[in-house]
Amino acid sequence: MPDDALRFGANYTPARGWFHHWLDFDLDELRADLDSIAALGLDHVRVFPLWPVFQPNRTLIRPRAVEQLVALADAAAERGLDVNVDGLQGHLSSFDFLPAWTRTWHRRSIFTDPDVVAGQEEYLRTLAAALADRPNFLGMTVGNEINQFSGAPHPDPDRITPDQAARWLERMLAACEEGAPGRLHLHAEYDAAWYRDGHPFTAAQAARLGAATAVHSWVFNGTAQRHGRCGTATEHHAAYLIELSKAWAVDPHRPVWLQEVGAPAPLIPPAHAARFTEATVANALDCPDVWGVTWWCSHDVSRELADFPELEYGLGLMTNDRRTKPVGAAIARITEQWRGRAHRPAPRSTALAVDAGEDADGGAAGAPGRSVCAPGGAFFEAWAVLTAQGVRPAVVLAERAADPAHLAARGITEVLRVHDVT
Prior knowledge:
Glycosyl hydrolase, GH
């Protein structure tokens, strides 16, 4: 595959048993799932070991569980699928999965307790090392939106500071690199990192730590409620997050992975999901430096499983009996359209300057006022207005808006301010 080829994949949700499949691991079922994913023309899957299943005790990383993860990767390779592994699960589809040695009678911070952090390092290093010799192993993602454990609205958070969050991320990424040197190791947050004032995981961390920036685009965050299913802001939300992330990046061409994006009902009704998918992906691919798109998710959650939020049951590209849905057919058309084509969109020559405030050191890294970037915020709405007018706005930090070298490196020739947008 050419180095500049776009990657298209799915977040793998097993058709039988959801992520509880690790408790009843069935390689034949897994192979059938992977066959159905490969049939859509996808080239990779993102997979989710359950942390308490793989490391039920701080000093026990179950060898059999690790062997099963490697078996999954090998089955994927047989079908031409690469594999990214999320380590610390963590949080999935409204459920928390934390090992007993971090909760209740053994309660200690998953971000700052020395023993817990050392256990996490060994776990991530072990998973990465087990896959390091597999050519189809892309790399590790530290965990799935684990930032949600660090503050509100989580009901029982392990509160930390931005400095503590940065140190934790650096240690986790280093453990992944030690286990499998040179792979695409990264971390991934839900959008509080971009939108919530005071959140300890920051936009700068997301855009500067790890081998790529991951963005997770969910329009149930107020975007679709405010702008409707066909609104410019709704259909461009993924593109907006990609461009917003580039404002904080030091490398002007740092790769950005649209690692999660889906069509959540009822805000995106099932009859409209294919259109939303096509528009969202097309708009995202109009952004430079996109590594790839990984849809959430591969298969629906079975109605036999209880207590999921209603929207979680219907997010799959396929039903839980592996029939392709209209949204899956849309993704298959997109992958076929892009196969063998280089991704080289024109630079976004007009940028909108974002002022999310200065941190205590006088810079924008902490973004104490980043709520301006959230749906309903002045910056978010101005970016949407420009986009609706046919402008392709990039985003630049206000403190870099007069930096000729930075602007030139990104192909920006014009910088607008929020008050310029009418």
